[in-house]
């Protein structure tokens, strides 16, 4: 039983290595880059010359409180969904969430001069994982989805939740949460659609 427990725990750790890598990289860049990390943050005027900011902008933070808040959210997501998703699924959720946020910023938020933080990606991870985790009880799945969607809709209507700006140490860009959530849903739907198509192809008779 001890060996089985150890193997199960090891499998969980292996599955969430993308989240561990994300958190570690974010912490290192945020600490080394200093507050708001001017050289790494998403800053619209520099994107064509410095396209890496499309990625690093999500990894750096306003300060230590902003970083710790997002790392705590990442750890909670890892703890809740570690048994249910494979590493490749986490990578897909990360990729699509980041892409959706950057595309939304570029096309729909031209007034946004700069942005830092992982919170938009976290919303994508949370919604995507809730939709992809087959081990999640049905009512819990839709409860989580409903809570996150309600939060996103509230933010679109009334702005950031009370005290979140104070906790983060600066203004909250709620558009990042919205686009990240859309990206998470798109990633989950496309993953499931790909699995259905793959299963259909495998079961198709060969003539």
Number of domains: 1
**How helical, in percent, are the residues?**
over 70%
Give the CA-based shape.
globular
Return the CATH class.
Mainly Alpha
- Low-pLDDT runs of 5+ residues are none
Say how many strands there are.
2
Could you say what the CATH architecture is? Up-down Bundle
Instruction: Quote the beta fraction.
Output: under 5%
Number of helices, counting only DSSP H or I runs of 4 residues or more: 9
Output the CATH topology: Rhomboid-like fold
Most strands sheet: 2 strands, antiparallel
Distance between the termini: 48 Å
The helix/strand class is: mainly alpha
Q: Average pLDDT across residues?
A: 91
Question: Which characteristics define this entry?
Answer:
207 residues; mainly alpha; Rhomboid-like fold; two-stranded antiparallel ribbon; 9 helices; 2 strands; globular
